[in-house]
Specification:
Blueprint lengths: L6 E6 L4 E3 L2 H8 L6 E5 L2 H8 L32 E7 L6 E7 L5 E8 L4 H18 L6 E3 L2 H9 L13 H16 L6 E3 L2 H4 L10
Parallel strand pairs: 4-7, 7-8
Antiparallel strand pairs: 1-2, 1-3, 4-5, 5-6
Length: 211
Amino acid sequence: MAKKKKYYVVWEGHKSGIFTDWKECEAQIKGYPDARFKSFESLPEAERAIQRNYWEFVTKKDQKQPVTKVPPIHIGKPDLDSIAVDAAWNTATGDMEYQGVYLKTGERIFLQGPFKDATNNIGEFLAIVHGLAYLHTNQSQLPIYTDSKTAMAWVKRKHANTKLALTPRNKPVFELLQRAERWLAENRYTNKILKWETEYWGENPADFGRK
């Protein structure tokens, strides 16, 4: 009986993508710290998977144990009635995407991207502003967690202090930045923007699992 063909999705490796041969997949993950990959039975499954979060396709026993370090009193535990935002940036392609999740249930609230030739800081900034606009529209006072001090500072100044050069490929990103800065300038919000304490709480729940 012929061996059933498999499709290997590599989210994080020397090169990300879909591979039809195990040796090709192995070459991308061998020697790569914390490589993220999984096999699928069909190409459509693999194509859907690579557009989503790696952690959605692994079982609980495959996941790393959470951080057990006891947080200081002034840090405490995260407020579960909140949203968390994060961004992912592919160092090989320059593609960026960002998302927001409701902490209590893990439900994804929004997902944007991928965008060409962007940066992680830009993604983190856009994620916060997107979260603020979402909460403003829904008249919600929920706080927002982010693990990016840079993005928090940009939001506070209402300006994305990026050194990224404008190109035809990343023009949509700059248009989003202008919209985000304009939203911050024209709207008032009282939602708290809080630092996600990864050292004590584990990975940001909105993380894409591609580190």
